[in-house]
Amino acid sequence: MMMGIATCAIGVLPTYETIGVAAPLLLILMRLIQGFGVGGEWGGAVLMAVEHGHTRNRGFYGSCVQMGVPAGMLLAAGVFAIFANLEESAFMSWGWRVPFLLGVVLLSVGMFIRVRVMESPLFADVRAQKKVSEVPILEVFRKYPKNVLLAMGARFSENACFYIFSVFVLSFSTEQLQLAKSDVLIGVWIAAGVQVAAIPAFGMLSDRIGRRPVYMAGALAVILFAFPFFWMIELRSVPLVWLAIVLGMVGHAAMYGPQAAFFSELFGTNVRYSGASVGYQLASPFAGGLAPLIATALLKWSGGPTWPVLLYLIGTGLMTVVSILLSSETFRQDMGHPIEQNRPSADRPSTE
């Protein structure tokens, strides 16, 4: 709701000539609201999908929500590509607003789903038993502190590599290597298309062999590919740039696919929304949207060589590897009785 309203509001913002400095301030406010909306709604969307799924396909159900990111990138790219064909004066005057106003379509779909979809049986049982937590965030940190830290650590590599492979690569390739931005963007769009298929594929794979091995494979792939990625980019060959971005984003998809189910399975039903959301979002200041800024600062500090960025990417990957190693497998457990990571394994309930 917040995301949709803020997106549509950007499309009707007055110009600087109309209201002066208030125009950019309102734009920043709308972007902040979008961020709050994404942060708050991720947990709800994921839990709605995962809790309605059977034990044998929770990974796939959760991955369908994750698939919205690359699908949204493709949709946004397509819409803006259409309107970019307008005369420059028309695009700057009103054309740029239309894609944002089209957000009302997605907002309507989201509202329809929200109204028509029932609460999951798991949450309905908790509500019937009057076990809904009054202050879930406090209970999360009281009962599942280690799980929150493990989810946060597991997110580090996934979050950082996404922004390095899809955002930082744009500025690095165009400003440092003098490649055409349009050429690099095509590579990002190709990678997004590959991810639309790869994310649910890895989600389904995690339903077969477990969340940990799939997630671990993705983190290790990013670590091992950190050097080849920049080596391929620095060759300044457009096809190699595309291949590097695609391969990097496949590693990301291996973590992102099972992530929704994995994080959901770490917490009890009465606090799952808060637990999964907190674990997901706490990593963002260190390895999320700030990753391109951190990478740019490291590149400036080094005077051009990319080795500090490599170490940053590898460091976040190692944090994820350690977090996965310290985690227990969750893919066959009863979500009504989640694993508390500090309990002896013999006491952990399972549906096996």
Account of the protein in words:
This protein has 352 residues and is mainly alpha-helical. The chain has a domain at 127-346: Growth Hormone, Chain: A. The protein has helices at residues 2-10, 16-19, 22-52, 58-66, 68-83, 88-95, 97-101, 103-116, 121-128, 136-143, 145-176, 181-209, 211-234, 238-264, 272-282, 284-287, 291-302, 307-326. Helix 1 runs antiparallel to helix 3 (22-52), helix 3 (22-52) packs across helix 15 (272-282) and helix 5 packs antiparallel against helix 12.
Molecular shape:
globular
Structural class: mainly alpha
Q: Main sheet?
A: none
Distance between the termini: 39 Å
* Secondary-structure element string: HHHHHHHHHHHHHHHHHH
Strand composition percent: under 5%
Tell me what the CATH architecture of the domain at 127-346 is.
Up-down Bundle
Helix content: over 70%
Number of strands: 0
Q: Quick summary of this structure?
A:
The protein is an all-alpha fold.
Supply the key terms.
0% strand, disordered C terminus, 352 residues, globular, mainly alpha, Growth Hormone, Chain: A
